[in-house]
Amino acid sequence: MYFMFYNLIFLINIGYYLIDAEKMEPSIVIIGAGLSGFSAAARLIENNFTNLIVLEAEDRIGGRVHSVKYFEGNFIDNGAQWIHGEKDNIIYQIAHKYFDFGSTAFDQVDQTFLLSNGSKPDQNTCRKVLEIAYKILEDDDDEMEDYEGSLGSFMLKKIYEKLNEPQYKKINRQLIPVILNSIESDINGYYGSKSWFNISAKLDAKYDEAKGNQHLTWKKKGFITVFDFITKKAFGKSNYLDIQNKVQLNKKVVNIKYDSNEVMITTSDGTKYFANHVIFTASLGVLKKYHRSLFNPNLPQYKITAIEKNAFGAVGKFFIEFEKPFWSLDRDSFVAYSFLWNEAEKKEAIRDNREWLFSISGFFIVDQYPNLLEAFLGGEKIDEFEKISNEKLIDDCVWMFEKFLGNSIAKPKLIQRTKWLNNENFLGTYSYVSVDAYKFNVGPKDLAKTLKNSDDKPIVLFAGEATDLKFPSYAHGAVTSGYRAAHEIIDYYIEDD
Ligand SMILES: Cc1cc2nc3c(=O)[nH]c(=O)nc-3n(C[C@H](O)[C@H](O)[C@H](O)COP(=O)(O)OP(=O)(O)OC[C@H]3O[C@@H](n4cnc5c(N)ncnc54)[C@H](O)[C@@H]3O)c2cc1C
């Protein structure tokens, strides 16, 4: 009430809202030009909150969306690659009427299993065990929600229970341990976890994925196309929200000093920015390492606990090009190789310093590019993968293919590789639901919580995938987290009539 009388002179009546004209120009700094930062900026500008800037440490926009040129006008994705799901996926919902998505056929075509001694294991056995594992993940949510331990121990318990049922008695038992290793590797690749024993089964059951096709692609245009939809560029010039103009690149924020009324933000080149509100969107990895030096005063203890106990994982990818594909060109019969390591070749790889190869969960085809194979990596060896030279990466891959295929292959060309874990502006790839987060009862809600003053004015706001209540880790979660933070500011200034 006090706020309304004080500013009475500036009140203008627009439709259903009373808008405080003075306060319509609050200054807002958004830290990070990734999906959540852009989404927050878009929503603010749409609501006439235009007094904002976006500070970005990298020399590009996009953050963990990083489409890189493969050849003229054709992109591949070092970061987000697939739209995971249709229903409730905000990215799909905004874009699907205007963009003809591609798809990677993981759900339609069975993967091909290879053994490290060059023999082809019985595909039916491998696929049966895999099917059992994925059915448990999909169907056993109720039981999982009551399970206190890790996803790894839950999966092992359930898979062995199933395998003891009479219909699976004939399955070759010798292969099971190596197939289980491969399933764990897939799961680590999906979550970014070092081990599936770090993932909380209970928390995992709590989060549903968006239903529908999990592997829609932006074809050759790359995931960066999503920004044309966030800025409405895709809907024509008159709708375009010019956020690009508000972005300052190569501006690494090193300190955020806040009090009950405003913030002072300092970048590494010494520039200072004063604002009424700041929206912080850098990754949970950045927060883990730098929250103490970034925030002055220190963040409240509940937030520090959430930052420390929520997990931020790391995956890797690389793309290799072959002059002639040696895998099937028939898209109906090949989608991916899964590698099953025997002890003998494992020992050989360790002896020859090729342990990073164990983190490859598989090689698969790339939508639209028939000569490319993409590797996805998860687990413990991501740091090692990021640190080896390009030459060694290729040499080790050739060694591995020749072992598993049992014949020689032509040397491929390295097209792209990722280094997210060792990039100081990311320090990993995405968050996941950890056993520790469950133990300490922390989650996205704590990471998302805004620091407000005693008048309920939001001062320091947090967005980014790890803060999304419904779809943490995903690109669509990043978008909705940005919208949520923008609305907190908008709602503070705009009151229902
Ligand atoms: C390899 C990989 C594969 C993925 N695959 C998929 C997928 O297929 N589908 C999917 O839905 N999601 C996927 N994701 C997740 C998705 O990319 C992220 O959820 C989303 O892009 C995160 O957006 P964000 O805005 O939260 O964070 P970011 O994109 O990290 O944006 C934060 C920005 O802050 C900047 N920044 C950091 N520190 C500072 C600082 N001190 N000062 C200024 N700026 C700073 C960063 O440079 C960055 O640009 C993938 C991610 C990776 C890395």
List keywords for this structure.
about 500 residues; alpha/beta; FAD/NAD(P)-binding domain; Polyamine Oxidase, Chain A, domain 2; 6-stranded mixed beta sheet; about 35% helix; globular; disordered N terminus; binds flavin-adenine dinucleotide
Overview of this protein structure:
The strands form seven sheets. This protein has a six-stranded mixed β-sheet with strand order 10-4-3-14-24-23, covered by helices on one side. A six-stranded mixed β-sheet has the order 8-18-19-20-17-21, sandwiched between helices. Strands 13-12-11-15 form a four-stranded mixed β-sheet. It has two domains: 2-63 and 223-312 and 435-496, FAD/NAD(P)-binding domain; 105-214 and 316-419, Polyamine Oxidase, Chain A, domain 2. Residues 1-22 have low confidence and may be disordered. It has 497 residues and is α/β, with parallel strands linked by helices. Strand 3 (28-31), helix 2 and strand 4 form a beta-alpha-beta unit. The longest helix is centred in the C-terminal third of the chain and has 19 residues, at 475-493. The structure holds flavin-adenine dinucleotide. Flavin-adenine dinucleotide binds at residues 31-37, 55-58, 63-65, 79-82, 84, 252-253, 281-283, 286, 315, 317, 418, 420, 425-426, 429-430, 464-465, 473-476, 478.
